[in-house]
Amino acid sequence: MLNRVLRVMLARELGRSIDDEIYEQARDQLFAAGQIGRVRGQGGQIFLAKSELGRPQEKPDTRSARTEAELMAPLGRYLRGAFVRELDIPDHGASLIKDTSRLGPPLARWARPDFILVTAMRFRFMPGAQLDVYSFELKAEHGATDLAVYEALAQTRFTHFGYLVWHLPETSKAEARLPEITAQCSQHGVGLIRIHDPDSDEAFETLLDPVRKATPPAEVDGFLEQRLDEHERMTLLRALDGDRP
After folding, report:
1. Other Cβ atoms within 10 Å of 158 Cβ, number
2. Which residue(s) pair with 51 in the sheet?
3. DSSP β-bridge partners for residue 237
């Protein structure tokens, strides 16, 4: 990573600028301890040392990069299983997960989350019902950028909770972007789920929980009307009315 890039990331993380002398002292101490290596040249770069010699140990990457299309099925499986269980929806409530990557207005920018999750319930003793809509924007290994965060955020125009889901294996060079993506998600109240291994639900890690957005009911209503079929709408309505689906 370029020194100037790392300094910007550190400044964002700490919320203040980094003095040149302090940065250089910290860099030199880490290098002397064998925790980082250095690449000299224009701007200078440093890398995380993986071996006692202070040089990264290269591991052959035998896996092929997964495309977003290939990651859709594993994400759907995770949402229908482990993710829904963590929400602890009561027996008299209802939930549904739907692939909406091809649903919605074709020209509407960022109005097609890859998945939505809708939960509906009526409280037994307190008056009122609750409907929550979650949107999930999926990105492959090298697809997570600042723009991806804004895409996940934009989808909360129609939902209450927005997530960015990123396939980021442990050995990926894209991991260098993780601190910046995490900071961006935190700033905008977007949730962040990291997929270490799409073949195992235990390898899905929630790094950030989203902040609930005060999305206007009319926006949510219109969004669901366009994307749910009649059976799905009736399932949610029965749960909101207090009847078992």
Report:
1. 26
2. none
3. none
